[in-house]
Design brief:
Elements lengths: L18 H14 L5 E2 L22 E5 L5 H12 L1 H4 L1 E6 L2 E4 L8 E2 L9 E6 L1 H6 L2 H8 L22 E2 L1 H12 L9 E2 L1 H14 L9 H9 L1
Antiparallel strand pairs: 1-2, 2-6, 3-4, 3-6, 4-5, 7-8
């Protein structure tokens, strides 16, 4: 475990979310969706609430990971993100009136006096390196360096429906995992014919039923590959 040192403030609005932030959000929803995780946003060109300082949401480097108020697993996750911040490139975490920052990395959690208490979400900021290059697979490796970290199945079968395309962060997360494994696939959060083709290729490689549908067995095998 290593702690991230340093802090890169926002310089100006970029107009979009960074890929690393999208990967973090997709991983989070896949891992904790069954426990009430929600996406409360990434990109938003605005100042920090109650100040004139530009929020890192304006550069698309901050994720608001929605949690049920009072959920014990949320504090555990917050602690883990801090403990592994060096591996993940996380430079700041705010949760439940506490803040940890790479500006003072060894001070641990400190009181947070901002106007938003952050009781219903973890505010997580990434360094620029992480914002540009972090992947769902890297998050799994960073959090579970000895293996065994399989994001929870999102609870729905991902399949190609030409008349009603499946979309979502769980789709994007699985696509990113396939891309990380070397498959040619667009990471766009839309389960189209290309995703179904890659699913069939992967299923054939792993000796699974070849149907192009990402169910619990294919999902689990994707992160054990």
């Amino acid at each position: 475990m290593t702690i991230h040192t340093g802090y890169e403030p926002a310089a100006g609005c970029t107009g979009h979310s960074q890929q690393g932030a999208k990967a973090l959000m997709a991983w989070y929803l896949g891992a904790y969706g069954a426990q009430g995780a929600t996406n409360l946003g990434i990109y938003n060109c605005r100042p920090v609430a109650g100040s004139e300082t530009l929020s890192l949401h304006g550069e698309g480097r901050a994720c608001d990971l929605g949690v049920p108020v009072g959920a014990g697993w949320a504090q555990t996750l917050a602690n883990t993100l801090v403990d592994r911040s060096g591996e993940l490139g996380i430079q700041l975490v705010i949760y439940d009136r506490k803040v940890w920052s790479g500006r003072r990395p060894l001070d641990g959690w400190r009181d947070y006096n901002g106007s938003n208490p952050h009781r219903d979400h973890l505010h997580v900021e990434l360094s620029w390196n992480a914002a540009r290059g972090l992947t769902a697979a890297a998050i799994e490796t960073g959090l579970h360096p000895n293996g065994g970290g399989v994001p929870a199945w999102p609870g729905r079968h991902l399949r190609h429906k030409p008349d009603n395309l499946m979309r979502g962060d769980d789709v994007r997360m699985w696509q990113q995992r396939m891309a990380d494994l070397g498959h040619e696939i667009a990471v766009d959060g839309i389960y189209g014919p290309q995703s179904a083709r890659v699913a069939r290729e992967f299923q054939q490689e792993k000796g699974l039923e070849v149907d192009g549908i990402v169910g619990p067995k294919t999902w689990e095998a994707s992160w054990q590959a």
